[in-house]
Amino acid sequence: MSAAPASLHRSRDAIQPALRAALELLDDRSRHQAAYHFGWLTADGEPVAAGGGKAVRPALALLSAQAVGAPPETGLPGAVAVELVHNFSLLHDDLMDGDEERRHRRTVWALWGPASAILTGDALLALAQEVLLGCGLPTAAAAARLLARTTRGLIRGQVEDVSFEQRAHVTVDECLDMAGGKTGALLSASCAIGALLAGAPDTTVDRLALFGDQLGLAFQLTDDVLGIWGDPAVTGKSVHSDLRARKKSLPVSYALNRGGAVAEELSAWLGAPGEPAEAELRRAADLIAEAGGRDWALDEASRRMTLGEAALHDVELESGAREELLTLGRFVVDREV
Ligand code: GRG
Predict the structure, then answer these.
(1) Domain count, the chain
(2) Mutation pick for ligand 1 pocket among 8, 9, 92 (CB with most ligand atoms within 8 Å)
(3) Structural domain of 198
(4) By CB distance 3.0 to 4.6 Å, which of 52, 132, 195, 272 could disulfide with 200?
(5) Cβ of 11 less than 6 Å from ligand 1
């Protein structure tokens, strides 16, 4: 695996003080659970030196401001806001999926119960709007509107994802559309919000958003491959996590839509009740690979990245920030596969 790009390290450092200041606004219980989720505290409230997520979305937001010639500080409220929305969605998603581990640690709902995950998640969502609306920039309201629209898109994607569980058949296009909402919406907003806060022209903001849309799909395709074949020591999730939940992720829906005996066996297995045994999980992973689901997802991720890069080709952007956006995009798509 290649080393994390410098933009990720910078963004983690840059957003920490503002994120911590935002969490100070919360009641004690929500603040403790949120700080635990961000990897700053143990469950008992002891400080932790390092941890948390990759901070991909804030890095994109800071670069988005720099790409249109603004200082990264202009993108900072956007960076903090997208990270808050991202973590709101993770808290709720872990509860909905029944996942007990994230980032190599117990999830908030697993430690403190469902109400805690719901309330702490809601608190982060509210903080995100507060951070944007309180930033004092003339573009604050437009950025808050973008974030509200984005959250709606994220929810739409999640609603579809949940509904797929009840359906025997899902097309690859439906699955891609769901991923565009669930993952693409926030990555797209992350790529655009810095430029929007900086007052860049609509056409530039739109191109950055298009780059983010494609990056979001590529990101989810990679994530789905990791959810089946990823090393738990690296992903921080349990082995075969998505298969354990019998999820119709992108590689699975590709395999099902290929038809034939492999798809039939896979379809019967997905519809079966109960907790799958380890041998069944290995068999399902092999079937998906045999039907081409793994190779397709990796190729499609790379194709989406190329489309995303093309969206930035003829846009006037600061060259260093453009390069860093592309490097970060390639890193998240190539990670740990
Ligand atoms: C219930 C109102 C309401 C909304 C919930 C739960 C939800 C809406 C949406 C789920 C969105 C979701 C969790 C998408 C998955 C996106 C994804 C691939 C997340 C992992 O992102 P990383 O790898 O995480 O950037 P880190 O840990 O690095 O921060």
Answers:
(1) 1
(2) 92
(3) 6-333
(4) 195
(5) no
